[in-house]
Design a protein that fits this description.
Layout (H helix, E strand, L loop, with lengths): L1 E2 L11 E7 L3 H12 L7 E7 L4 H10 L5 E4 L5 H11 L6 E5 L10 H11 L3 E10 L8 E2 L4 H9 L11 H4 L5 E3 L2 E2 L3 E5 H7 L11 H11 L3 E12 L16 H18 L19
Parallel strand pairs: 2-3, 2-5, 3-4, 6-11
Antiparallel strand pairs: 1-4, 5-10, 6-10, 7-9, 8-11
Helix pairs in contact: 1-2
Length: about 290
């Protein structure tokens, strides 16, 4: 089901905001309320794609969206990458695309305006993310180095010893307000629409995970920078779908999907992005996830 999607009647906006929901409709409703308080809300397109395959989730979202916002109730679980691409394809083109996780709350009413201003004034910026904190006030590990297979394994075996949170120390301490990074989580990430088009959006081989690492890699390859800024700090719920160690792989379906997506990423890296090996057949994505 597609609600409020008459593209011809939509105003020309600066930012398309896309939210892909799976099982977080109540929190997504709060996310939407916080977005409506943004100073440039009249220049934003907001589209929500619901992958939950749940009548209750869909009902919450149907009641949560306002006039001019767009709700797509998917008849299958599209996954994150397909969901983002599909949502963006259904709304009018804007100058920027802002990827927002459904658990994000944006208290700063000029946050998106700040992000747009930074992008406008820095033509070398291809992607820009904000700092994040969880509901309990703890910082979120947004910035990352490009994944390495050995480090990926260690993060699952001894996660406490493999945090990359220290990459954000300069921002957290106030020594810097802008930081160049390899890649960032796509939970609150703004990109140039023309660059998005050049890249082709998120790589749909990735069902849920690793698409943001791949996206940032391609931003760098196109000659742009990936930046984290402390000018904005948004709030997340602190719940990671793929949380756990390698020992919980048999009980955590999301973790198994993460492994599958990681295999696709590393296979692509080995062959310089050529799709000679695709590990999707090993861990077939369960459409109920």
């Amino acid at each position: 089901m597609l609600k409020n999607t008459n593209v011809e009647e939509m105003p020309v906006c600066r930012v398309t905001v896309v939210i892909v929901n799976y099982g977080k409709a109540t929190r997504a409703a709060s996310c939407l309320r916080s977005l409506r308080r943004q100073s440039m809300i009249d220049r934003m397109n907001i589209v929500v794609v619901d992958n939950s395959l749940s009548q209750s989730e869909g009902s919450v979202l149907f009641n949560a969206v306002s006039a001019g916002e767009h709700l797509i109730i998917a008849n299958e679980n599209l996954g994150y990458s397909r969901g983002v691409n599909f949502g963006i394809s259904k709304v009018a083109k804007a100058e920027y695309i802002l990827l927002v996780s459904p658990d994000i709350i944006v208290e700063d009413t000029v946050a998106i305006e700040k992000m747009v201003s930074l992008m406008d004034s820095n033509s070398s910026f291809g992607a820009l993310a904000s700092m994040q904190h969880n509901d309990d006030g703890t910082p979120v590990e947004i910035a990352r180095r490009f994944p390495k297979f050995s480090h990926h394994i260690l993060r699952r075996v001894v996660p406490s010893k493999c945090s990359e949170l220290s990459l954000q120390d300069q921002l957290a301490s106030g020594r810097e307000s802008l930081l160049d990074v390899d890649w960032v989580q796509s939970s609150f990430l703004i990109l140039r629409s023309d660059l998005w088009d050049q890249i082709g959006g998120l790589d749909e081989r990735y069902y849920v995970f690793m698409s943001d690492a791949d996206l940032c890699r391609q931003v760098h390859e196109k000659g742009f920078r990936v930046i984290v800024t402390s000018h904005i700090n948004v709030q997340a719920d602190g719940r990671r779908a793929s949380a756990g160690t390698i020992w919980t792989v048999f009980t955590n379906k999301a973790l198994r999907i993460h492994i599958r997506d990681a295999l696709i990423y590393y296979a692509s890296s080995v062959f310089n992005g050529r799709r000679l090996i695709d590990f999707r057949w090993i861990f077939r994505a369960d459409r109920s996830r």
